[in-house]
Amino acid sequence: MPDAAQILIERFTRRDACVGVVGLGYVGLPLVRALHDAGFRVIGYDVDDAKIEQLRRGEAYLKHLGDALPKELAASDRFTPTSSPEDLSACDAICLCVPTPLGSHQEPDLSYVEDSTRMVGSVLKAGALVVLESTSYPGTTREVCLPLLESGNRRCGRDFFLAFSPEREDPGRRGFETRTIPRLVGGIDEPSGKVAHALYSAAVEQAVLLDSAETAEAAKLLENIYRAVNIALVNELKPVLADMGIDIWKVIKAAATKPFGFQAFYPGPGLGGHCIPIDPYYLTHKAREYGHATRFIELAGEINSRMPLAVVDRVAHALNQDAKPVKGSRVLVVGIAYKPDVDDVRETPAAEIIRLLLERGAIVSYHDPHIARFPDMRRYQFDLASSPLDQAHVDAADCVLIVTNHSDLDYALLAARAKLIVDTRDAMARVTPGQARVVKA
């Protein structure tokens, strides 16, 4: 093993190295916490100056991480937030935690990965480690990042080290954090893998060294494809069973009593978050290069992506039973985050549902205790602010549409006062029935 690799391994083991984190969002900031808690000096980089200023002031911008973390980081002499690339030149390791969205035709958009890799390459000190954490297709680390870093006479395994270690964040999930979630690590070469394994072993409870970056990249995709396909299965079964007069929620609950061979997945209004709606298409794209059709992935994507339309059709049908058209009806959307108890709207199905309702002439309002205003998104811009969930607003609604089942909502009020509730999450099953007519969607 090259001397440079052994030097880094020893520094990571002693935790006296400096680690940079590029991208301080839902993936990067939790990683900063894990590295800082482990004793490393950490430099957090982001192009968003507002985030940097908030971190310097100790202010939270990701609510699910709590208020204590930014205050602790702001008071620490081992954490430096910055928007200056030059500050990363002091780092012994740099982790890239940048977005990997899809383009307009469901093709991978690696521009953030490419730009951040070029930036890191321009300031990377000799013998340092670079780790890509952003989810992408197998081969991204080797085919995209490696050539950008091997400029001039610089060579991987000699002048720097390169690995892939996929993030496994799930915002809002209790009982798990970056430190406690097992971490996969795969290097471009053997020294890179061992160096990256040493870094993560010092920061998390379990780091699993794999034989290559490609294996780690494929494992991350499999995790999310598994979820996408199984969610699509129950989404497809939902209307079939409903027409038979069978409640799919009761069916899933019954099947889940089996202690082996079954894992419960639940239907919903569509997929949200960065992982499940997006990541499977990265493998679909790469598979085409090798002449393969990923039919399960594409079918799952088709089923899941049409769920917002199915929800709006269900609203229209329910209103029609009350002799009301969608046009001119007041629809109160409850919950716009993509999952319960977070302020995360990435790829939220609520956006497409609201667009379709507005397109059909509905008068739409929303309530979400975690999101005061509907943020501008790449494909959606709504001039909407969260309305109070009180008697007046519930009484005024022709239909209350539950999209996100936050735990701190007043479901008893909805049951008692709403005329019609279209429930996409089986949320009303937890409360005593009231005057509201509840339609599951």
Annotation keywords:
5-stranded parallel β-sheet; 441 residues; 15 helices; 39% helix; Rossmann fold; 8-stranded mixed β-sheet; alpha/beta; N-(1-d-carboxylethyl)-l-norvaline Dehydrogenase, domain 2
Itemize the secondary structure elements and their pairings.
Blueprint: H1 3-14, E1 18-22, H2 28-37, E2 41-45, H3 49-57, H4 68-75, E3 79-82, E4 93-96, H5 111-123, E5 128-132, H6 140-149, E6 160-164, E7 183-187, H7 190-201, E8 207-209, H8 213-243, H9 248-255, H10 279-289, H11 295-305, H12 307-321, E9 330-334, H13 349-359, E10 363-367, H14 391-396, E11 399-402, H15 411-417, E12 420-423, E13 437-440
Parallel strand pairs: 1-2, 1-4, 2-3, 4-5, 5-6, 7-8, 9-10, 9-11, 11-12, 12-13
Antiparallel strand pairs: 6-7
Helix pairs in contact: 1-7, 3-4, 5-6, 8-10, 8-11, 12-13
Could you explain the architecture of this structure?
39% of the residues lie in helices and 13% in strands. The chain has helices spanning 3-14, 28-37, 49-57, 68-75, 111-123, 140-149, 190-201, 213-243, 248-255, 279-289, 295-305, 307-321, 349-359, 391-396, 411-417; strands at 18-22, 41-45, 79-82, 93-96, 128-132, 160-164, 183-187, 207-209, 330-334, 363-367, 399-402, 420-423, 437-440. The protein is elongated, with a radius of gyration of 24 Å. Strands 3-2-1-4-5-6-7-8 form an 8-stranded mixed β-sheet, with helices on both faces. Strands 10-9-11-12-13 form a 5-stranded parallel β-sheet. The model has no long low-confidence stretch (mean pLDDT 95). The protein has 3 domains: 3-211, 3-Layer(aba) Sandwich (Rossmann fold), CATH 3.40.50; 221-303, N-(1-d-carboxylethyl)-l-norvaline Dehydrogenase, domain 2 (Orthogonal Bundle), CATH 1.10.1040.10; 306-440, 3-Layer(aba) Sandwich (Rossmann fold), CATH 3.40.50.720.
